[in-house]
Amino acid sequence: MSVLDNWDNWKNFLGDRLHHAQDEGMNNDVINDLAYQIGGYLANQVDAKNEQEKVLADLWSVASKEEQHAIANMMVKLVQNNGSAH
C-alpha cells in the first residue's frame, strides 16, 4: 500500500519528512518552497488516491501561483503535528 492511498498515512508521512527537515536545520522558507514544488509535482504527475487528494488537486489546478504557495504553506501547518516525531 502506498502512503498516498490513505489520507492519515499521507499526513503522517509528510509530518515525518517535515520533522526530519527541521531536525537537519532546514528553515521554514525552504520547507515551504519545497512543499510548493512537491504540490505542483503531485498535482501534475500523480493521480489522486483518495478524496482529500482529489480536492487538493482540484484546488491546485485553479489556483494562482500565489494561492498555490498558500495551499503548500497550509499543508505544512496541517502536518506539523503528524508523524512519529511530535
Automatic annotation (TrEMBL):
Q: Which domain of life is it from?
A: Bacteria
Q: Which Pfam families is this protein grouped with?
A: DUF3243 (PF11588)
- What name does this protein carry? DUF3243 domain-containing protein
Its lineage opens with:
Bacteria, Bacillati, Bacillota, Bacilli, Bacillales
